[in-house]
Amino acid sequence: MSFLIAIVGRPNVGKSRLFNRLSKAGDAIVHDSEGVTRDRQYADGEWYDKRYTVIDTGGFVPEAQAGMLAQMRIQAQVAMDEADVIIFMVDSRAGVVPADREITAMLRQSTKPVFCAVNKIDSPHQPEQYMGEFYRLGMELFPISAEHGHGISGLMDTISALI
Ligand code: GDP
Ligand code: MG
């Protein structure tokens, strides 16, 4: 069984973008036979000599079928049940929102390691200055830009050390 990394977070924080980066194919979108585009949920990837499977939990529940908090509870439950490591993603530009606190409370009950990726820190210079209020979540923080790739190596070096 491959080492499972789950990405959890509310809509639009950048989960699928990170999933793309961490998956070997680099393409989270699959086109099925009807020509419908949907999010892929699992992909294999490797970081140097370490192999893993990454899960984009955001793809599990169609947004129309559940409110955001319900979706996030399901994501967190899937991650806590299935994953070996959880990446909890937040948006540096939005700051800490109530849904982030709710998911933090759930993840705190997990026995799995949880790393908080503070995304959309696109400037590689002094990334820490954008992370202030996220320290209150009480998790280990990693400033990243899923879009531009900054900070991914720090996050993945830490995670791959557990594989
Ligand atoms: P998801 O809903 O959590 O899967 O988020 P997506 O990966 O679909 O990204 C949501 C939006 O945020 C998209 O418009 C992305 O282009 C944008 N985004 C994702 N990562 C970054 C980032 O590192 N920097 C910036 N500026 N935008 C990002
Ligand atoms: Mg997504």
UniProtKB/TrEMBL annotation:
GTPase that plays an essential role in the late steps of ribosome biogenesis. This is GTPase Der. Belongs to the TRAFAC class TrmE-Era-EngA-EngB-Septin-like GTPase superfamily. EngA (Der) GTPase family. It comes from Bradymonas sediminis. Associates with the 50S ribosomal subunit. The lineage of its organism: Bacteria, Deltaproteobacteria, Bradymonadales, Bradymonadaceae, Bradymonas. It comes from the Bacteria. GTP 1 binds at residues 9-16, 56-60, 119-122.
